[in-house]
Amino acid sequence: MPERGLGFRDRDHMLWWLFVGSRGGEMRLRIVELLARGPANANQIAEALGVNYRTVRHHLELLVESGLVMTEGPRYGQLYYLSKDMVESLGRVKEMVKEGRLRWG
Fold first, then answer.
1. In this predicted structure, what is the pLDDT of residue 18?
2. What is the pLDDT at residue 83?
3. DSSP line for 15-64
4. CA distances from 56 to 23, 28, 35 (A)
5. Which residues in the chain come in under a pLDDT of 50?
6. C-alpha distances in angstroms, 58 versus 51, 53, 95, 101?
7. Contact assessment for residue 40 and residue 80, using Cβ atoms and an 8 Å cutoff
8. What is the CATH number of domain 11-104?
9. List of residues 6+ apart from 94 with CB closer than 8 A
10. What are the Cα distances from residue 90, in Å, to 43, 47, 53, 63, 83?
């Protein structure tokens, strides 16, 4: 899995930080779960989740930088979709989130 400049020691550490160990993990998981249903642009994601467009863009930038989300098309209306690595990691991410909630409430 590409780790494009985020500097994590391994895949699990990166996944843990993105979805459990940082403040925006829950929002990133909601975005990923939405994209698991199919590609969408940032505005569609923001509307579907009932959150601010800028919030969605911030989290998408991290997910793209980590190689978990891919893009297609020009910046305006750009579509986002899950990378093969994210599709394969989704079950593990959900396990990590569940363990994190049990451990830290």
1. 93
2. 98
3. HHHHHTSSTTHHHHHHHHHHHTT--EEHHHHHHHHT--HHHHHHHHHHHH
4. 14, 8, 12
5. 1-3, 5
6. 12, 9, 24, 24
7. yes
8. 1.10.10.10
9. 29
10. 23, 23, 24, 13, 11
